[in-house]
Amino acid sequence: MKKKILSTILTAALVFSMTACGVSAPETSAVNDAETPAAAADGEVITLVMAEVNPLDSVAGMTDQKFKEEVEARSNGTIKIDLQAGAVLGPEDQVLDQMLGGGGNIDIARISPFSLTPYGANKTKLMSLPYTFVSRDHYWNFATSDLAEEFLLEPHENGSGVRGLFYAEEGFRHFFSNEDISTIDSFKGMKVRVSDDPVMNGLVKGLGANPTVVSFNELYSALQTGVVDAAEQPISNYKTNAFPEVANNMVLDGHTIGALEVIIADSTWDSLTEEQQQILVEAGKATQEYNKQISEEQENVVLQQLKDDGVNIIEVEDITPWQDAVKPVVEENIKGQEDLYQQIVDMQ
Question: Which residue, of 73, 78, 183, 315, is most buried by count of CB atoms within 10 Å of its CB?
Fold first, then answer.
């Protein structure tokens, strides 16, 4: 009887300690001991909650699902990823606030690296500067370099409480509007949706428009009601979030790459064994390769669908005026990091 009581107490203590670390309470599983990695002794299963603002059929959502599959397969089912898509856990800023605060219930999130800028990610900010990456190959040269590893660890090293696992991408980002945007002059006086990001604010001001902060999950209604006239997203997100219904004009200016980053809370990372951490790292590498294969292919399919559906797709014949208009925001945001920024530029 005493042994049963002691066992119950120890089990309750384990559940409490993992919950406090940001790891969801483990579910017991009849995993064969011979198939169970040392990191998950006695067949214990841990569940990590992962947040995604986009739908599962977006490039970001598909990338998340691949990561989930890789983690669960490589851990023989002892690490489960509870993927919550479609912003059910809140928009990106709220997800980050929970994770950075250290007291939330979100362990992993797929974010735009640019979202870390307000939290002191000065290196990461360089990735978001307009017209920095000239091609997908240029971006991938960076994302798979030693320099990328340095950037991924920046929020951990500055005490923000999260760390990056890997990078991916969802294509270049473009402006779309419910008004004519056939030329750069069309933006003068427009209200353009931005997140709370100084780089994007500077970009929009450089185009002569008025930056307006709107949460992503409120963007559809903001475009519909005229709170904003325009916004920007990668092509796949533009379609999967039904934005063509309320903003039927898209100009392919490609002002920045739609970089993706998967982050994990430091508290969650520290609660894992080295074997479990390595599983997440290796799963991230495999997911990167998958994302690299599907992103451009999916984008081309979606772009053709948009054209077939009657969306006004506007090509930019000369990007030079756009680049010239935003030079001040680039120069302002590389101060003190000129050499580091040049390293990224030279990777093209």
Answer: 78
**CA angle, 36 then 42 then 43, to 5°:** 55
The tokens for 134 are: 């000239």
Tokens (6 digits) for 255:
């002002």
Domains and CATH numbers, the chain: 2-345 (3.40.190.170)
Closest of 65, 49, 317, 29 to residue 168, by C-alpha: 65
CB 176, CB 238: distance < 8 Å: yes
Q: Tell me the three state secondary structure of residue 214.
A: coil
Tens digits of residue pLDDT in 112-141: 998 898 888 999 999 999 999 999 999 999
pLDDT tens-digit map of 224-247: 999 999 999 999 999 989 999 999
What is the reported pTM?
Answer: 0.83
Cβ atoms of residues 55 and 237 within 8 Å: no
CB 232 within 8 A of CB 176: yes
Angle at 260 between CA 245 and CA 241, to 5 degrees: 15
Q: 319 vs 113, 184, 208, 323, CA distance in Å?
A: 24, 10, 16, 6
